[in-house]
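How it folds
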Amino acid sequence: MGPLPSYVSGAWHAPPDGGAPLADAVTGAEVARISSAGIDLGAALEYGRRTGGPALRELTFHQRAALLKKLGLHLREHRDELYALSARTGATLADSKIDIDGGIGVLLAYASKGKRELPNDTVLVDGDVEPLSKGGTFAGRHICTPLLGVAVQVNAFNFPVWGPLEKLAPAFLAGMPSLVKPAPQTAYLSARLVELVVESGILPEGTLQLVCGEPRDLLDHLTEQDVLAFTGSAATGRLLRAHPVVTGRSVRFNAEADSLNCSILGPDARPGTAEFDLFVKQLVTEMTVKAGQKCTAIRRALVPSDLMDDVARAASERLARVRIGDPSDPDVRMGALATLEQREEVRRRLKKLLDAGRIVFGDPDSVEVAGADAERGAFMSPILLRADDSGRAEPHEVEAFGPVSTLLPYDGAEQAVALAARGLGSLVGSVVTADPGFARRVVLGAAPWHGRLLVLNEEDAKESTGHGSPMPGLVHGGPGRAGGGEEMGGVRGVLHHMQRTAVQAGPSMLSAITGRWTPGAPRAETGVHPFRKHLEELRVGDTVVAGPRAVTLADIEHFAEFTGDTFYAHMDEEAAKANPFFGGRVAHGYLVVSFAAGLFVSPEPGPVLANYGLENLRFLTPVKPGDELTVTLTAEQISPREGAGYGEVRWNTDVTNQEGASVAQYDVLTLVAKREAS
């Protein structure tokens, strides 16, 4: 490979200079060269704002989700090529799958969430209507709209595929274009990823750009509408956060930094228990996957004092079976670190850790390697340390970003929590125990210092995704040293790229702005039952009012006998009178809902295909024998389904009695056919 190209302003850019060499982590041979010389970074950002942003904002959430799914499926077809290139970063096939399949999985997960959890619209309504007046003519509601800038990624070297994709997915779904700045050590893999995306033509032009090489003055061109997302060391994160443009223009900044994550073995997990074995297996896995170069790896293993010898022995025995070498060898379980410089950095950090402990497994200066040269490649033995004084500062402050972990003793849940907190903020922690009481004390005590906590035991071990694996639907980030930010977390990650705005207006205007009917806004009774209208013909506010229907004592008793619900409030007059909420026999809530359905339904075959649920059901006023029910059904939200012959319609439902008091309110969810499908 020659100099890595960058993709900016709609074209591939070849650097005019020779650039700096990038080495194969396994052989030391040159893989590529890297330089950002000649790139107008300010113009690249402006291109994203003026070309990529408008193209994305024209699409609905569902349309963006469909493109993410298409992209994920396209990249799946090129995994073998990416695996082969990933091996040059020192990654085994298992490591590469975590990076590559994991990144593709994030795309597909966000595609699914976009379709299931977001509307087929360009604006997201956040939360319920907030009444702001007695008469109901003034109210407020929050909306979320895409920021008008570029989501700039500054990524770490350890996950050159997952890193860009896990940031791209929520930004793209929100409607923001991205500019990817990969870490130089493994930028050749990120560059090939972007080449595959660009060659596919799936994403609108300007929505994804790539800058290989030094960021130079990139941050100087950020604006109030841009987002800066960083993954890497805590020290670099602090520098970016303090950049004068980031602070001066209040650029939205998110950092996910390496942290001193811990795993805690419960006192109940004695040798011979499933939990003891799980703890040891997890510790060794986190030390050796990606050669320990994971921001979520276990750096501190907290062990009951009386189990330190047992854990040290068991972990050492397991580490001794790990085959290290050329990652293309299927029998190799741990490959090389990303660069020789990274190996030297790990050794320097290890020397500091040795001030507080001793090595119980491994040799930092010597390692047996299969199929490769131990010195030309960035190979290193896993190093397990033991620090019998858990109060020493070094294990809680110094991180060796490689296959290094330290055993630390504790006595009691309180001390375990205190030691976990000494990391001053972690991405993840885990508790391996079968004791619910211990798990609760540790999780609740450690939670303020952690972004994610895993409780592992025999019950969940077979399906657990593990200590070190962030999931798209859960937040990835942490307080303090871990950067103070959050990534992913399902729709939370989308909202990070949007502006939440409180809109105050009358019900009619709120309905027009949000696309959802607001209580107090006009209803439209056209003379045509809304259930006779196809999706294209329905309008927000279309309404049917039906009733009244009297509720008799015979109705209540029949419903009780038919359903088996003979709760005393429906069947025992004296007992019901003694209940301060009823004062006598009342109708079943679900009888009210059933009668309401009988009133508003249009029973003949037509555009309504199915009722698929109720939401927000509340029973507000007891219904007594003799009461008369009227139901008002109003089209609240209409959501066409992309690529389907139908859409979803949410109906605001209000059931009232003869005095006009609401007895039940809820939303009815239906699938309604499009005319073309009929």
The CA atoms of residues 189 and 363 lie 31 Å apart. The radius of gyration is 30 Å. The chain is about 30% helix and 25% strand.
